[in-house]
Structure formats: C-alpha cells, structure tokens
Amino acid sequence: MPTFQTYSVTPILPAALEPLREMSFNLWWTWEPAARRVFRHLDIELWNRTNHNPVRMLQLSRQSRLEDLSQDKTFLRDLKQVFEEFEKYLGRHDTYGKTGPGSAIKNPIAYFSAEFGFHESIPNYSGGLGILASDHCKSASDLDLNFVGVGLLYRHGYFRQQIDKDGVQEAINLNQNFYHLPIRQIRHGDANNLLISVPILDREVFVKVWELCVGRVKVYLLDTDIAENSAEDRLITAELYGGDLEMRMRQEIVLGIGGVKALTALGISPGVFHMNEGHSAFLALERIRLAVIDKKLDFYSALQVVAAANVFTTHTPVPAGNDSFPRDMMRKYFGSFTKELGIPFDELFSFGQTRVDPNDPFSMTILALRLSRHANGVSKLHGDVTRSLWKDVWVGVPVHEVPITSITNGIHTKTWMAPEFSALYRKHLGVWEEHLTEPEFWRGVIDIPDTQLWETHQKLKVRLIEFLRERVRRQRQRLGESPESIRKANLILDPEILTIGFARRFATYKRATLLFSDKERLKRLLSDTTRPAQFIFAGKAHPRDEAGKALIQEVYKFSREAGVENRIVFLEDYDSYIARRLVQGVDLWLNHPLRPLEASGTSGMKAAPNGGINLSVPDGWWREGYNGNNGWAIGAEIDNGTTEFQNEVDASSLYQLLENQIIPLYYAKPDGKLPLAWLQLMRESIRSVTPVFNTQRMVKEYTERLYIPAAKSYENFSRDACGAATQLSQWKSQIRKDWPQVQISDVQVVNKDRQNILVGESLEISARVHLGAVDPQHVRVEAYHGEIDNGDIRNPTATVLNQSSQADGDGNYIYQGSVPASESGTYGFSVRVVPTHPHLMQEHELRLITWS
Question: What percent of the residues of the chain are helix, what percent strand, and what percent coil, each to the nearest 5?
Fold first, then answer.
C-alpha cells in the first residue's frame, strides 16, 4: 500500500455569510444564546463533533451547505439580527468603563493567569481557577474596562478523561491544532510572526504570541512550541500543570517575564498588573529589572514604583498548594538576573521567604505579597484564613491588620444561565442583564407563576438526563459492554426524582465520597420506593493524584452495583459543557469540602440562577451566601477539630438533612402536582444569590477597591523621574537603620482608679517613647485595646496617642491619649509605635512595629 500525505481543503465562505467568520473569532458567542443558535444551525452534527467550535465548523462545512444557507432568507435574517447585536455590543459607549467609575483607568489593567477556561472548545484550563479567570475577562468586557489578559497556550491543554471498566481514570493527551481555535497569531508588520525572547539559563527561548478576542477584551497567549526553539524548550508550553518542578519554573518564567516582554512588544503599557495566583509573580522582578536599566533607578526605588501597580489574588488556603522552589534551583535560574537588579542573590531569595526560617524555600506567593501593595483572598472566610496563613510575612503585626483584603468570587451569569431561564426572567422581570447586581430587581422572581418556574426547571432536567444517558451509552460502547448493558443506559435516572449533582476537581479535601461513609444508609435513600434520591458525579483528578483517582474509582464502582445502578452515575470527561448541563438541570447542588480549605468555590453560584438550590458546608462563598432560607448548610463551623471528627460530623449532618428536611420537602406536593415549598426555596435561592455572586459585581469591586488606587499610586510614583519612589526608598532605608533605637517605656494609666472606670468615662494613657534619630513626624504612636479573651484581645481597636512634649535631653517624648469606655467588661491595652510616611500605601508596608 502507498503512504499518503494529508492536505486540507477549506470551503469558500459566501459573502453573505462573512459575519459568521468575524463572530467565530470573538468569544462573545459563548455567552450569547442567539449567536450559538446561528452556528448550531449550520450543521448540528458538526456542531457536536467539533465540540461547539465555530472556527472549526467553518473549516469543515460542506461548500454546498454554505451556498444553500447564503440563499436562505430565514437564516440570513437571523444572522443579520445577531451580527447587529454583536456590533452594538462592541460599539456601545454608555458603559461602566467609558462613563462610570471604570473610566478612571487610563492605561490597561494586565491580568495574568496560568489558565483560562473560556469554553470547552478551547481546553486551556484544568478547573476553577481557569473558569474564574475567564469569567473575570468576560465581565471586564461587559463593563468595557481597559483590560488585557496574559496567559500560556498549551499544546496538549490539560487532558481528556476516560474511565475504564474498573473505574480507573485514564488521562488522554490532547494535541491541539491552534489553527482550529478562535485565535490569531500576532504579526510583526505584514509578514513575520511577532516573536519575543526570554532568557532561560544559558539560552534565549523564543515565544510566539497569539491573540484571543473576548468581547471587547483581548487575551494574549504565549507559545514556545515553535521551530526556533530546541525540542526541550518547545515543551515549556506543552502541558498545563505537567512536568516536574524544573518545568514549572520555566513555565512561570515564560508567563511572568515573557508576559511583560510580550506586552512591551505589543506597545501596551499597563497601569495595573493583576496576578491571578502566584504563578506569574516573576513579572514583578522583570518590571523592577526594566526600571533599574531604563530609568536608572536603584533596586529599592524601582520596587516602590513596581509594587504600587501590582495586585495579587491568592486562591490557595494551604501552604503546600503554593508554588515554591529550592535555593539551588533559584540560584540556577536567577543567579545572573540578580546582577541586573543590582542586589546580591541572597537578598533576592529573601523576598520569597517569611524571614522567620532562613531554610525555607522560595515561595511565589510570598514574592507576590512582598512585591504588591494590594492583595486579596476570594471570600470573607478565605481572607481571614489567608491573613492567618501569611502573618509571618508581617512579623509582629496583629493578624487582623495583615494587609490582605478579600473580594468574593462570582460567575459570569450569562455564560452559566440556561437560555430558558434567561427568557423567563426577561418575560417577568425585564432586561435582567441591565439590572444584574440590583437585589431589589431580583425580588421580581416572586411574581413568576409556580407552573412556569417548575416547567422551565423540569425541561432542563429532562435535557440533562437525556444528555447523560447518551454519554453513558457511548462510554459503554467504547468499553465493549453487552448490548443489554448499553440498552440499560436508557433507564439511568428519572426526571421525577430529586436529582443531586456533585461535580468538581477530585482533590481529596473536597471529600467526594463523604456520602459513601454509610453505604447501607445511602442505598436506602436511593432505593426508597416513594421518595428516592438520585446522584450525578463528575470530575477529574490530577494524573499524579493517586488518592483523587481512588475516590473516582470508589464512586464509579458503587454506581455499577446492582440495585443502585440507575440512581447514581459518574459522568466521565468533566468540562465546561458538562458543567453547564449539570448546573442548569439538577435540583440540588452538593458541596462538602473540608472546612476551611475551599477558598471560594463557584460551582454552586452557577446553580442558583437556574433554580438550583445549594446544600453545602459553610465554607468559601456559601458562608456568605447562605441566609437560612435559600438552601442548607452541612455541619457546624468547625475550625479546630481533627479531619476524622469533621468528616464524622459533616457526614451525619448530610444524611440527617437529606432524610429529614430535603427529601420530604421535595416530594411535598399539596396540590398533587407542584412542590410548593420547594418552589419558594428556588425563588429565594435565585433572589439572594444571583445579584451578589456574579463577576460583574466582583470586577467592579476589583476596579474601585484595587485597580483604581493601584493605577493612581503607580502614576504618582512614576511622575518626575520617579522622584517620590526614590524619596520613599531612601526614607525606608534610613528608617530601617534607625528603627532599633525606638523603645517604649513608662506606660502609665493616669486615671486614679484603673479598676473602677465607669461606662462613659475614658482610660487616660501616657507613654514615654524614645525615638532616637527617628523624626516624630514619621511615627504614629497608638494604644491598641479591646476586650480580653484568653490572654489575647478580641475586636481590637487602635487609638492614636498625641505627642504632648518636645524631646528631653535623651531623645524621649511623652505621648498621651484617651480610650473611651463605652461598655462594661474586662479590657486590655498595649502601646505601639509604627512608622508612617505620606507615600506609604499599606499601614504595615515596612513590617516594622515596636510594642511596649
């Protein structure tokens, strides 16, 4: 037989259909149902075969089909209408970014993330971090912010998941053809691709830049799999979270340092750099290097300028989940880099440590915290956990004053809301997209008739079950199961039964098998003849996470046991398409991570606008979202119990809630048709969750609380040849040198009877403070006070003490002040001194504090 070389023939797109090409290269269609309908109408079979990829569809469509559609008046009318909406979206001027608070952003916000999960047809993500990053970009587009994204483009994406007959996860590598994706190469002039180079060890690694359009926003993706690189370097962007620590180092150099170089080559000069997790933190070092070389600043003056513009979001509430590198590896990759920074290697290395233990490795999270003046966790609880986790970066500072705030995550509502629910809201509430973040507007769900609300939900539930049966059927065919087993896929699940979904990354802390702690009890729930429950599981474990893969196997094996096989199912190859089907179709969304390890979580937020109700541990976002009437909270808020104890408490609570509250409520139909009390819960879930837990609110918060202050500070520090930054750097250096002289002595309570202060009076405090060479105008002396609680202070407050005397001969000053006694109780206080300067952006920026 001869061997054949392959070639492709691409159809010519008739002129009347040219709008399809323009829309296919902008991900606006991923959240616009009418646009998806137009693409689907091209060829429904091709739509499914290409994993809903319009670019690939236009490459594979039959010429005759395109010619027919170019003469189809109905199709052309629909296309014209959708394309007009697209142009109207892109051209709108009455936006938050142009006329609202976002207009204060003059230079772009550059948002760096190791993964982006825009859509199943672009598998450049592994899970929640990528989905969140993409929803962030979509809302930045909706709000019309001056915003760009930066990430890596992975040849093999993450992986496709197959489950074998024994329930073992198999990781199938993708091999993406980038010319089949809605991305375009950036060209230098008309001919050559734009290439940037990043020094790694003793060589230059070349990086190609691709552009992805997301509504009004552009995302730039970096690719090293090009002919100009060695085989070794082509692998840097081969796989998301693949390879060893050495590969992780190279990926993070390309993302952080390469990302800054790419923006410069594109002529983009950001005013804010937002690091979504610590993977991109090397960008701060590259920006300092550029300031040292181009602006002739010393390292610490450059640091002031760079840190002013940096925003850092951490998502990981455990130290082990944060990237870190050993000293030898950092020296190998950054030994010569430090010469350009103008500081010794050991000094650079210390920026990745707490400085409590000099043997610690170099933490990317600590680097990002040290080189950013704005940092946040992703829920209120996660903010508390993060401040406690990283308190040693600010030694001596009370935990609640550690400068890490929180902005709770959200979802891009239109991406995740079923078109059927969108139409229902438009009919009864109005144009909901214009009022998404207005709680009063969403009170209108009360007026949606019971029948319409239930029928809309049931329609989506039936669609989910049909979709799931087809997926299971295909899986059983692939595994070579019997014809009878394949036919039985049609019996899996029942639309009339309470349907509970659990889908997420199968990391052990998410406890996917908590429900399986009492299998006999579970079987009774599944097989109850009058009020049964049924469960859908989905999710991937990292290919090297053996414990996570074992959990998948346990779920799968149980789902194939006789007697329960139609009531529980594991759906393989979880992606954003399956996620949309699940959150739009289940009755109840289940989530039970080990508290407090779920930084935020967003899957349950996606269920609510679709009428889904949450059953979750009060962790992450649900601790804020649960109001007692919009779902259920599993277990008590345990913070200090052992894992075993928490598992026991939560499993018991989960079963009791299902047996005694949830299942009876779902099946309670006073009129014999509708579960009226359940419908009220659905309404309350929609009303309370939808207007709050969305990325439109989230991105506005980032803009007003972090981006605008960062942009203004960066502008101030960049002015007058960075004079303010140089001045601040010199002042910090002097203060650090002089600070050891600062001491507090002779703290006095002036009241005659300190044990008998009456409510309404004040505690009068006087303290002698030795400042040495430190100027009094550069310190703040405070009384730190609050209720005594086991030797510590609860709900502390700081009250400024005023200087009441000039220095005596020994450089001592007297400071005095009053602490109001507004409520009875036992209180404690201490006196402290902190440095202060007009250009400081954080109260504890110097990490210097002296206590009495």
Answer: 45, 20, 35
Closest CA to 81 of 19, 18, 143: 19
pLDDT digit string, tens, across residues 21-72: 999 999 999 999 999 999 999 999 999 999 999 999 999 999 999 999 999 9
Kindly report the CATH class assigned to 445-690: alpha beta
Distance CA 560, CA 564 (A): 7
Concatenate the DSSP letters of all residues of 380-436 into one string. HHHHHHHHHHTGGGGTTS-GGGSS-EE----B-HHHHS-HHHHHHHHHHT--GGGGT
Tokens standing for residue 36: 């998806």
The 10 Å Cβ neighbour count of residue 485 is: 16
Predicted confidence (pLDDT) per residue in 655-677, tens digit: 999 999 999 999 999 988 999 99
Does the pLDDT value for residue 9 go beyond 90? no
At residue 226, φ and ψ (nearest 5 deg) are -135, 160
Specify which residues 151 forms β-bridges with.
221
Q: Give me the DSSP letters along 5-23.
A: -----PPPPPGGGHHHHHH
Task: Provide the pLDDT for residue 70.
Answer: 94
* Prior bond of 398 cis (ω within 30°): no
Residue 496 neighbours by CB under 8 Å, 6+ apart: none
User: DSSP state, 704?
Assistant: I
- The CATH number, out of the four listed (2.40.50, 2.40.128, 2.60.40, 2.30.30), of the domain defined by the range 742-851: 2.60.40
Q: Tell me, what amino acid is at 72?
A: D
266-280, 492-506, 799-813: segment of lowest average pLDDT: 799-813
pLDDT at 15: 94
What pLDDT score was predicted for residue 190? 65
Question: Exposed/middle/buried for 224, CB within 10 Å: 0-12, 13-18, 19+?
Answer: buried
Amino acid at 275: M
Q: Is the model more confident about 195 or about 189?
A: 195
Please tell me the CATH code under which domain 96-162+179-409+703-719 is placed: 3.40.50.2000
Q: Give me the half-sphere count of Cα atoms (radius 13 Å) on the Cβ side of residue 271.
A: 22
State the maximum Cα–Cα separation within the chain, in Å, rounded to a whole number: 107
842 neighbors 796 (Cβ within 8 angstroms): no
**DSSP string for residues in 477-507:** HHTT--HHHHHHGGGS--TTSEEEEEES---
Query: In the 8-state DSSP scheme, what is residue 508?
Result: G
Q: Which of 490, 567, 559 lies closest to 526, judged by CA?
A: 567
Q: Is-above-0.85 flag for pTM?
A: yes
Q: What is the mean pLDDT of the chain?
A: 94
Q: Identical fold at 96-162+179-409+703-719 and 445-690?
A: yes
What are 798's strand-pairing partners? 784
pLDDT of residue 754 exceeding 80, the answer is no
- The structure tokens 């230079």 sit at 107
Q: Supply 646's token pair.
A: 């928490």
pLDDT bracket for residue 215 (50, 70, 90): very high
Strands (E), 289-353: 310-313, 324-325
- Please report how many Cα atoms fall inside a 13 Å half-sphere around the Cα of residue 24, on the Cβ side: 25
Residue labelled with tokens 């438009």:
426
- How far apart are alpha carbons 142 and 434 in whole angstroms? 10
Residue 22 has, within 13 A of its CA and on its CB side, a CA count of 13
- Which sequence spans correspond to the domains of the chain? 15-91, 96-162+179-409+703-719, 445-690, 742-851
Give the 3-state secondary structure of residue 303.
Answer: helix
Is 604 in contact with 582 (CB distance < 8 Å)?
A: no
| Alpha-carbon gap, residue 490 to 480, rounded angstroms | 17
Question: Residue 229 CA to chain centroid, in angstroms?
Answer: 32
Paired with 498 in beta bridges are 533
Mapping DSSP to helix (H, G, I), strand (E, B) and coil, where does residue 651 land? helix
Assess contact for 323 and 278: CB atoms under 8 A: yes
Handedness of CA 312, 317, 323, 327 (dihedral sign): positive
Task: Give the relative orientation of helices 327-334 and 245-253 as an angle to the nearest 10 degrees.
Answer: 40
